[in-house]
Specification:
By secondary structure, the protein is of the alpha+beta class. Helix content is 17%, strand content 22%. The chain has three helices and ten strands, in the order ααββββββαββββ. The radius of gyration is 22 Å and the shape is globular. About 10% of the residues have low confidence.
């Protein structure tokens, strides 16, 4: 009888420990936007010696901004560097302790490998599948679909190494990163009078349930299932 009781107590203790461990994982909603910004900032500053800045030079400064999806949910963060360059971070609940080995990422913050800057700039354009392919702006990469370039007053291609939010004067507005039906192509947007404005093309979106990447000007933002990108 004593052995049975001892086994039951041991099981209860193990169960309690398991529950405590499972409860240790942090969730996105556990932190305010300001706290997320502070946590990301600290991680970037701590890893400054190996941070993936767009060139071999060291950045002078940076700011971290929240980005929302179509449903007004906090999903990403923008890191805008000075004097140039920007990158994205996705935010997600940490995996439960007992099942964390099943997940590619252990961190709440995951860095995108797509770092934009002088070596990987972007140009404003309007998507049009009936137009010629867009020019490649990065060696070894094809253009981002078919479309019509938006040129400057001299008829020249516009090249940017700062984010669409920054160059359009919307860096301090509420910013959106909208996923399309192509998993790695995103629309950079803000809202005006309740309507999304695509900051790459300057066109108003119809706020449809799903955005077709063949009809929208997008940029590539990938998140790879590899712990090397944990921040």
């Amino acid at each position: 009888m004593k052995k049975i009781i001892a086994k039951i107590l041991a099981f209860v203790c193990l169960f309690c420990v398991a529950v405590c461990c499972v409860g240790c994982s942090k969730k996105v909603d556990d932190f305010s936007v300001e706290e997320h910004i502070q946590r990301i900032t600290e991680r970037i500053e701590t890893g400054k010696s190996y941070w993936w800045y767009p060139t071999e030079e060291t950045y002078e400064d940076f700011e971290v901004y929240p980005l929302y999806d179509k449903n007004e949910e906090l999903k990403y963060f923008l890191v805008e560097f000075e004097p140039y360059g920007f990158v994205f971070i996705s935010v997600q609940d940490e995996p439960l302790i007992f099942t964390s080995f099943l997940y590619a990422h252990q961190s709440m913050y995951v860095l995108s490998p797509d770092i934009y800057g002088p070596d990987n700039p972007w140009t404003p354009y309007v998507r049009n599948e009936n137009s010629p392919p867009l020019p490649s702006l990065k060696e070894g990469w094809s253009g981002n679909g078919n479309g019509v370039l938006i040129l400057d007053e001299n008829g020249e291609m516009i090249i940017y190494d700062k984010s669409p939010y920054f160059v359009t004067g919307n860096i301090n507005e509420k910013k959106y990163l909208l996923q399309t039906d192509c998993s790695y192509e995103f629309i950079f947007a803000v809202k005006e009078n309740g309507k999304f404005i695509n900051l790459i093309s300057g066109l108003e979106l119809d706020n449809s349930e799903e955005f077709d990447c063949k009809n929208q000007a997008t940029m590539v933002v990938r998140f790879i299932a590899d712990k090397a990108f944990d921040l």
